[in-house]
Design brief:
Blueprint lengths: L2 H16 L12 E5 L8 E6 L5 E5 L4 E5 L6 E3 L8 E6 L5 E5 L4 E5 L6 E3 L8 E6 L5 E5 L4 E5 L6 E3 L8 E6 L5 E5 L4 E5 L6 E3 L8 E6 L5 E5 L4 E5 L6 E3 L8 E6 L5 E5 L4 E5 L6 E3 L8 E6 L5 E5 L4 E7 L4 E3 L7 E2 L4 E9 L5 E9 L3 E5 L7 E2 L4 E8 L5 E2 L4 E6 L6 E5 L3 E3 L29 E5 L12 E9 L2 E11 L2 E2 L2 H8 L2 E3 L13 E3 L2 E4 L7 E10 L6 E8 L15
Parallel strand pairs: 30-39
Antiparallel strand pairs: 1-28, 2-3, 3-4, 4-5, 6-7, 7-8, 8-9, 10-11, 11-12, 12-13, 14-15, 15-16, 16-17, 18-19, 19-20, 20-21, 22-23, 23-24, 24-25, 26-27, 27-28, 29-31, 31-35, 32-34, 32-37, 33-35, 36-39, 37-38, 40-41, 41-45, 41-46, 42-43, 42-47, 44-46, 47-48
Length: about 575
Amino acid sequence: MRRNSLLALATVAALAFSGLVAVAAPAQAAVTTNPFGGTTGTGPSGIALDADGNIYTANFYSDTVTRISADGTSTAQFGGATGDGPYPLAIDAQGNIFTANALDDTVTRISADGTSTAQFGGTTGAGPQGIAIDAQGNVFTANYDSNTVTRISADGTSTAQFGGTTGTNPYGIAIDADGNVYTTNFSSNTVTRISADGTTTSQFGGTTGTSPSGIVIDSAGDVYTSNAFDRTVTRISADGTSTSQFGGTTGSSPFDIAIDSDGNFFTSNAGDRTVTRISADGATTSQFGGTTGSGPFFLTIDPQDRVYTANTDVNTVTRISPDRGPLSFSSGDFPATTVGQPASLTVTVTNDGEGSVLLSAITPAGAGVAVTGGTCAVATRILGGRSCTVALAWTPTTAGALSGGTLTLDYFGGADPSGTLALTGTAAAPTPSPTPTPTPTPTPTPTPTPTPTPTTVLKVTAIPKAERLPVDKRSKLVSHARTDGRITRAAAWCEFRGNRVPRRVQKQLCDLTVKAPPSARVVGATAVTKKKVRITARPSCAAGLTVHAKVVAKRAESIRATWTRTWRVDNNPRERCAVKGTG
């Protein structure tokens, strides 16, 4: 896209803004909107976050990249000069920065430490407008003026058109979990899908809203576009058979779209300096936070669900933070009981805030008070406006009132990252029981010793747990298993810093394969048979990544046998785990 084309888009957005300022929706009380960091380069457009939470903007008019530290205290140019007109920006798993330069048809790469700035690969198609990076590190650009997609290999040695001709004026670009590439086509109101191998290029789904620009794909594979000139979002089902409007009307000129950790959608509205939030189910559409800086064309969201906009007209970044909590509780009164008799109480905990609450601790206090169950759990979220329960029991040891009884739930973030409920209750002294008349003790009849239930035999041949897995090499974690029953389950998954990786990024981070035999029962009660169970992994990064495997076997009328093992990924060389893209 040439500079005059961008100016035309900005002018349309500005005109839309001029007619809508007076009716801008008020900000929610539970959301904070503030400038973040200092002044960026001129014309910040693309915006992205690295694994450490630092913010980067591609500055269209000054041909630079700005870095704002995660705490917002430092704002400075990052690396050297880019190509002409850097518009979108993306960050690879190693933390390298890539800009697509719309005015000279190139891509610039800035090393993760900012010491090296150079052209990456060859010439792209005309007017690269969107940029994305796949799990293998290949860079893709959506070329607005030539209706094509360019692919630059991860090592930068190969630059070529990828797939066939897209719809008219491809603007945004995204890649799904299977490596298929999608573009929003600004002037034909369509989405193009190019298969992962580049052999098939076709329209995906039906007609979108007017001028689709931003694009995002959810964990189910559904595709969403923000439609810049009719203030809508379009949803196309993962199989492409259903195309419909999602949610209600957004702010003016929604040029970009993103998803938070709860599945809610956000658009940056360049025409009226707002952000719109659409709930995960599409039922609620409302303004999120207050007014941003002028010209918020792009946005991104951090792991704490804070939204950042790059404000092209005023060279700033705005951060909108949903407050966490507060939490409210139902009654904390235990029913009356007697000493030694437990009293039960179920407490309903409600998140009264806008953003979700991630619980870090559930702590009861008071003699004899304990948590016995409920749906609230550590490391789980309570969505805004939703509730969970904590089941409590109080077993008093002395008569009288419960002393010092409380229930505290701690959570991450928020102005007061905890909620506490006072627990009350009264215990009566037990009624003395009359002394019973001794009854002669009869001679007990010996009880036959029950036959113990046999345990299923399961022996698994696998890589030792102390051995670390190499990065970008396939490791055979499990090669086979021996059992006298049948294999009922073989599974593998990966975790990042103790949290299970969502299915939509399992393949790109771990590339797991699991092969197991049909679940057929072994003939004979004690036969031990070698089963072909094969589990492999090819991790693409290291820091904080672990790989897990499980094999379960069961013989009829026997106790199930379960085998599990966890491996860490070799961190030499250090490979950060992050995949980012814009558009």
